[in-house]
Amino acid sequence: MNTLQGTGALARLILRLDRIRLTAWVVALGLVPVGTASAFQGLYETEAAREQFAATVTSNPAFTALLGPLYDSSIGGLTAWRIGTLGTFLVGIMAILTMIRHTRDDEETGRRELLGATVVGRHAPLAAASLVAVGAGVLIGGLIAIGLAGLGLPWAGSIAFGAGFAAVTLAFAAVGALTAQLTQAGSTGRGVGIGIAGFFFLLRMAGDASEESLGWLSWLSPIGWFSRMRPFAGDEWWVFTLWIVFAVTSIVVAFSLAARRDVGEGAFPPRPGPGRAGRSLRSPAGLAWRLQRGSLLGWTGGLAVLGGIYGAAADSIADILEDNPQLNEVFESLGGTQTLTDTFFTAALGIIALVAAAYSIRSVLKLKGEEEALRAELVLATDTSRSRYAWSHLAYGLVGPVVILTVAGTVAGATYGSIVGDVAGQVPRVLAAAMAQIPAVWVVTGIAMALYGLAPRLSAVSWGALATFLLLGQLGQILQFPQWTLNLSPFSHIPLIPAEDFLGPPLITLFVVGGALIAAGLTGFRQRDIPA
Amino acid sequence: MTNAISISGLEKRFGHVVALDGLDLEVATGEIHGFLGPNGAGKTTTIRVLLGLLKADAGQVSLLGGDPWSDATELHRRLAYVPGDVSLWPGLTGGEVIDLLGRLRGGLDERRRTSLLERFDLDPTKKGRTYSKGNRQKVALIAALASNVELMILDEPTAGLDPLMEAEFRAAVEDDRNEGRTILLASHILAEVEALCDRVSIVRKGVTVESGSLADLRHLTRTTVVAELAGDPAAVWHLPGVHDVEIHDHRVELEVDSDRISEFVSGLAPLGVRSLVSHPPTLEELFMRHYEDGEASA
């Protein structure tokens, strides 16, 4: 039998299963770059206005660290700079999640066996998932290319931009295919895959933060290649060979691993564990710790590294001011260079807070996973009240982000402090700014808990809410969205710490909103059917 | 003696789907009660209501003298539950899950834990994701059987077990009976129910269609007879209490009302019996009859 037999049928099945999920990804990632370009057109109509904006951006290395280098002040160049890093990262996440969901998850749940017993070749599931993931990337790329060209941007740049997104999807679909072969659990595969995407993101950031000495790091990252491909700024088409070589290598390795192993097995054989439960595994809290500790550790570690890179990048802001007395004077008059680093740290920690919020949603929705897997009822049929059970996981949604922000904030402060020779002074400053993000994160936690408790089928909408906040935070200001839309995001209410007061009315409001949402979710959870 | 479980007129709807439509169930303290019904009859829904996981739309439900919804946690200290579809935490070993569930219920009988592990031949050091369906079920069964509770609610507990393990399960439940535990056993493995249960309730489409001891139920039904006759097999039509006759040459297969079996045998003898097999109604036949009767009247 042809090992790819049935690929088409499986691909159609995946499209059917993911019709809403994939449509949301494709529409969002395809239209955001076009919307951004359109907004830039409205905001900076003249060449001079764009050049002035570009000059501000390029003079600030913090921007380069966060978003990558800006190569061209045309509308296309600005859009590629503004959207490229974040967009390619998200496209990569989409590819990895799609791959794992339709390969390893199916094996773990036994659905793969159901299909494998029909006329389906052994490579068909992996091929079908790759086909759909890459297809989604091509669709996103197509939307971008046509949309940008439709705005009157040059065709070559538009196609390069769109093709770049498609190429990143291809590369990360290959990463997903590879990680799906390694681990037995889909959740571990997802963790490893996202970890790899995060690593490439950080690699690019480290490279771009100090381009002269470490610029080569960006060349090691499929995310970094996007800006190096210079859409609208020279269109270096040869860069596509990097993505293709990267993807082909990973896919070949993935398929050969898939051919060698048994269905359900990973690269690492399962090892037996203890025959008796340890002392900590005696309560719902003990169980939740077992289920949540690995991911808490992973997310904290990843974001600590990100914090370190931000801390290192913050220093280059001070450098640029030393080189530029005029700019320095401007900032002195605005309240000193400290204000600039504070602004930078608030922005950087805002990004860390968004990721911490993603962790929080994930932790809260562990409840939903447990309920759907019918494991919640095993625990709820014992002497465990619903509140106690819900809190055992909700606690990670609330305390986890505090841990993450504390560690990331401390590392960022310590890194910056050790460079400028003021660890004792900088750690508390940056840590305070990190802590200020917590109430906003808790609003997201509350949204997830409220949806799970009151309308569990809509739980995934919490990801939509987070995506909206991300969009508003990252693009709202620069594209001059109306203030009321910006106010929708809890992250826009974070005061500039330590420049502003900590416990002002905005933070108190966020606490109240988050608390009310959590209370509503818990009440709903206590009163509804399980499984819903 | 009080009832461990007492349900009357229980209704539960999921959207437009009526899962339970006035179900009644009485389980006396200390008995093993078989809870029978085809797939989708409402057995699992009833059990989830008893566990306080689902909220009843209408009807009275009493569990160990309390209300399963409002007194859930207090009641759960006194019962153990084995779901029909056992799903374990992929990263926890079987032994860890047994201990965890035992501790969450308020304690495990160490001696029983050890003997049950041996009896069910379970390796407690394997991770949840590597167990087969049968082994996952064993983990939940051992956790339930080893805990010190008054009531066990078992939802098709042997669906994934091999015949050897099924026999072990029966032996373990027999031990429990001797300790005076109440057991509600939802099943459609009829041999198991026949072997274990004092009384059974049969549900269909969310309604209880029959309830009583097996002897009671049998009395109401028929005995199956398969005979090879020297004479004219068509003559069996005229014998007393005969139903559902099937004739293949000299071989007849029929059912006789159980209370007229003596008259039937007297009438059969003159027809020249070469061979005769008769067996009392199996639960399966009973079950099928209730099921089909229900279909006919529905």
Explain how this protein is built.
The complex is a heterodimer of chains A (532) and B (298). Chain A is mainly α and 532 residues long. Helices cover 76% and strands 0% of the residues of chain A. Chain A is built from 24 helices and no strands. Chain A starts with 6 loop residues before the first helix and ends in a 5-residue tail after the last helix. Chain B is of the alpha/beta class and 298 residues long. Helix content of chain B is 34%, strand content 31%. Chain B has 10 helices and 13 strands. Chain B has a 6-stranded mixed beta sheet with strand order 5-6-7-3-8-9, with helices on both faces. Chain B has a 4-stranded antiparallel beta sheet with strand order 11-12-10-13, with helices on one face. Chain B has a 3-stranded antiparallel beta sheet with strand order 2-1-4, covered by helices on one side. Chain A binds chain B through residues 108, 184-185, 270, 272-278, 281-284, 286-287, 290-291, 373-375, 377-386, 527-531, and chain B through 48, 51-55, 72-74, 76-77, 79-81, 83, 85-101, 103-106, 123-127, 129-130, 140.
Anisotropy-based shape of chain A: globular
Percentage of residues in strands of chain B:
25-35%
Percent range for β-strand residues of chain A: under 5%
Low-confidence stretches of chain A: none
What is the H-and-E element order of chain A? HHHHHHHHHHHHHHHHHHHHHHHH
In terms of quaternary structure, the protein is: heterodimer
Structural class of chain A: mainly alpha
Percent of residues in helices of chain B comes to 25-40%
Which outline of chain B best applies? globular
Strand order of the largest sheet of chain B: 5-6-7-3-8-9
> How many angstroms separate the termini of chain B?
36 Å
Biggest β-sheet description of chain B: 6 strands, mixed
Distance between the termini of chain A: 43 Å
